[in-house]
Specification:
alpha/beta; D-Maltodextrin-Binding Protein, domain 2; 2 domains; 5-stranded mixed sheet; 10 strands; 35% helix; Substrate-binding domain-containing protein
């Protein structure tokens, strides 16, 4: 029987491009994956769904402590990523090398796309509020419930997409302008944990997620080991 995986979108490219195939080839174990922002994965659990393995924002596991669904004691960090910007394929890359250039790029944009539920979008919404530019940005923003936000700059809905760097890479037609400047950068760490009552097959997969093969896959897809 396949291992039931709940995974944040941030590591999906590493899983799809390398890790799932490599794990199945090495062990013969199939992975049945569900991919959503962490907030949506938690909602799935609230609605009665049960994973064998969960990969999510590290801090979110505290909400599951004592839930009888995920064994938080098995949690291991697997990867982290920062937030970046992407633009349409035929657009010059904007300057985001300094805070002032970054802020100007946001304010000059026709529309900035970001996620309503993803970790990067939640952070960005708070950031522009702290910077005092939320009303101006949101008046013409493209706010997306979930998914790969760079699709919005490819299909013309926006000319700036904000998302974690690993997720921006999932839309190769978009051009990544770069990460946020250091003074406003935000790193999100992701961990994996076993579902309560999970099998040896599920444990083998969690172990595989911290292997050298996994490390290389993370680095290829805009992630890094924590």
């Amino acid at each position: 029987m396949a291992v039931r995986l709940f995974s944040t979108l941030a590591v999906k490219k590493a899983l799809d491009d390398v890790l799932l195939e490599a794990f199945e080839r090495e062990t013969g174990i199939e992975i049945d994956g569900v991919y959503d922002p962490t907030t949506q994965l938690l909602l799935r659990i609230e609605n009665g769904e049960r994973p064998d393995v969960m990969i999510a924002v590290t801090s979110s596991f505290e909400e599951l402590r004592g839930s009888g669904v995920v064994d938080v004691g098995t949690r291991v960090p697997v990867a982290r990523t920062g937030v970046g910007l992407a633009v349409p394929p035929d657009t010059d890359l904007p300057d985001v090398s300094t805070f002032e250039a970054f802020k100007k790029t946001l304010l000059d944009a026709r529309s900035v796309a970001y996620s309503r539920t993803g970790a990067s979008g939640i952070y960005f919404a708070r950031l522009i509020q702290d910077l005092g530019i939320a009303d101006e940005i949101n008046a013409r923003a493209t706010v997306i419930d979930k998914g790969f936000i760079a699709l919005a700059v490819v299909d013309g809905r926006a000319d700036i997409a904000i998302q974690q760097l690993s997720e921006l890479r999932f839309v190769p037609e978009a051009r990544i302008a770069g990460p946020f400047p250091d003074d406003v950068q935000h790193y999100t760490e992701f961990s994996a944990a076993l579902g309560v009552g999970s099998t040896d097959e599920a444990k083998a997969f969690v172990d595989f997620l911290t292997s050298d093969t996994a490390r290389a896959a993370y680095e290829q897809t805009g992630l890094e080991m924590p």
